[in-house]
Task: inverse folding
């Protein structure tokens, strides 16, 4: 019986590599293409059994590829799964008319992707189904990695590729890590998983084990980690403040603790520079960001204008609110992202976060604040907010943080 093949067409190398690694583990042939031109050529010449593609492709767009595919009887019936950012209803209808079976939005619920691929290919793709919450964000050039409820090989593998994306977005070459472990009941079977987690992190630090700090209040977890001989230099603490003091440079600590001056109006102008990664982000926001609905809740008119001007070129919808009370009275539907100030009259950012938590909102929140005192940040982290930005704001940082939260694959 001939091996089945899958064509992956996506501009993200980490995503292509992750999908390829997973599928090759089940004896499938994987064909990779980084752009639409290459993807169309490989589709017509190699005729795979399944296509997994992004909607937004360099050099040639997916819709034009699908139109060629539909008109060629030799490839017309090949099933296709689209993994992409948010799409309008009109674009989704167009994809359906062009034969797309499934559309998954990023960040991906990867188990759904594998289930769909398994059904199409008739190949059982098994997954580690252990409960696990695992996420990562970057603040002050420190990567916060949160692990809770358990350990899962699939999510640990995903973390490696998500970190590659985050490093690219933030132009960060050698990161420092703060690993927050909570609600973990480690068993013997979990040791290979936790070892793999720290192998990935230490590899990103280029072997600097001391650049990985662990925050846990569990003595059992601490004991298990200290039993991993290769990671004996890990710094383990039960104090978030102490861990951050160790990770941040002295000049960063001062910046982190002080109240910075209000943003000047001249900051409204967009400054993208010549950095290639930032240029790529700017281009992505003009395409993938076209359908984003963003709320900015801040009593500073200048901040509202910075956010609106940053996303104006993409056609994204930016909804400004002068304070938390105004926002909570008429929370917009279908929001993709909320920029939230902490210090506002009437209802402050903490009041908004409390209400969002009560309603079970899953909309990502990026905290904005000119107050970067440690106790304020720690309080925000207590609400589960892992992404925050200190003022004054810069358009390029807004773009990076936005794609970190809503634009990455994982």
Result:
């Amino acid at each position: 019986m001939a091996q089945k093949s899958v064509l992956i067409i996506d501009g993200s190398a980490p995503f292509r590599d992750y999908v390829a690694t997973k599928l090759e583990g089940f004896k499938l042939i994987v064909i990779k293409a980084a752009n639409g031109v290459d993807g169309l050529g490989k589709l017509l010449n190699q005729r795979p059994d399944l296509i997994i593609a992004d909607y937004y492709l360099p050099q040639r767009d997916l819709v034009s590829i699908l139109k060629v595919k539909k008109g060629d009887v030799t490839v017309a019936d090949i099933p296709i799964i689209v993994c992409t950012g948010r799409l309008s209803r009109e674009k989704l209808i167009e994809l359906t008319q062009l034969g797309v079976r499934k559309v998954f939005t990023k960040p991906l619920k990867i188990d759904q992707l594998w289930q769909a691929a398994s059904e199409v290919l008739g190949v059982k793709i098994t997954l580690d189904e252990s409960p696990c919450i695992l996420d990562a964000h970057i603040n002050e050039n420190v990567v916060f990695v949160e692990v809770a409820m358990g350990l899962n090989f699939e999510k640990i593998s995903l973390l490696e590729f998500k970190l590659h994306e985050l490093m690219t977005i933030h132009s960060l070459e050698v990161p420092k890590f703060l690993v927050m472990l909570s609600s973990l009941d480690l068993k013997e079977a979990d040791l290979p998983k936790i070892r793999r987690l720290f192998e990935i992190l230490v590899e990103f630090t280029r072997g600097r084990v001391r650049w990985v700090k662990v925050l846990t209040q569990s003595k059992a977890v601490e004991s298990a980690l200290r039993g991993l001989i290769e990671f004996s230099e890990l710094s383990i603490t039960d104090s978030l403040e102490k861990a951050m003091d160790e990770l941040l440079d002295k000049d960063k600590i001062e910046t982190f603790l002080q109240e910075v001056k209000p943003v000047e109006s001249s900051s409204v102008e967009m400054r993208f520079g010549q950095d290639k990664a930032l240029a790529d982000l700017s281009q992505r926001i003009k395409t993938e960001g076209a359908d984003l609905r963003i709320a900015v809740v801040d009593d500073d008119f200048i901040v509202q204008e910075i956010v609106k001007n940053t996303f104006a070129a993409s056609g994204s919808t930016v909804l400004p609110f002068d304070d938390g009370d105004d926002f909570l009275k008429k929370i917009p539907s279908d929001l993709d992202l909320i920029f939230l100030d902490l210090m506002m009259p009437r209802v402050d950012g903490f009041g908004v976060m409390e209400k969002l938590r009560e309603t079970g909102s899953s909309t990502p929140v990026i905290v904005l604040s000119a107050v970067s005192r440690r106790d304020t940040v720690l309080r925000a982290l207590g609400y589960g907010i892992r992404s925050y930005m200190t003022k004054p704001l810069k358009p390029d940082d807004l773009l990076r943080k936005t794609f970190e939260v809503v634009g990455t694959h994982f």
About this structure: The longest strand covers residues 133-139. The longest helix spans residues 153-169.
